[in-house]
Amino acid sequence: MNHRLTAALLLISLSACAPEADSSQANRTTAQPVTTSAGVRIEGAELREGLPGAEDGVLYLTLTNTGQAQVRLLGGRTPLAREIVPMQHHGTGGTLEPILAPGEALVFKPGGNHLMLVGLSRLPKVGEQVNVTLNFAPGGEITLNVPVNPY
């Protein structure tokens, strides 16, 4: 019995010393999910704040092809940058030509493939909403109102 009490007290003490949860993760917001006319579902869209001196920005989201035909993400645009370009993970480098087969998903995430906002006209600020238009073939364009989160 005494060993159980000691173990419980040790566990409580250790949990009190643990670092606090990263509040920036808890407070992140993303754009409302939308589905294009070609059946591409876009979820979890978020921009990251611009770092001082940065010329480019980054957009993260998940694309899921819920349609019956193959769809390609061609790129996009925003008033915040010259263009939006799909990019491969920084370790492999280069542009990406995302093609989604029916039922397939593609995740653009930190440390992985991402959408680069090339040639920022200004730095995105935490809390603002930015219009982002993505271009698909087939399916045309869809515009999202994307929140900016801390880096």
UniProtKB/TrEMBL annotation:
The keyword Signal belongs to this UniProt entry's keyword annotation: yes
Domain of life the protein comes from: Bacteria
Keywords per UniProt: Signal
Lineage: Bacteria, Thermotogati, Deinococcota, Deinococci, Deinococcales
UniProt-recorded name of the protein: Copper chaperone PCu(A)C
Cleavable signal peptide: 1-18
InterPro entries named among the record's database cross-references: LpqE-like, Lxx211020-like, PCuAC_sf
PANTHER family the UniProt entry points to: BLR7088 PROTEIN, COPPER CHAPERONE PCU(A)C
UniProt feature coiled coil, ranges: none
Stored Gene3D superfamilies: PCu(A)C copper chaperone
Native source species: Deinococcus terrestris
A matching Pfam family: PCuAC
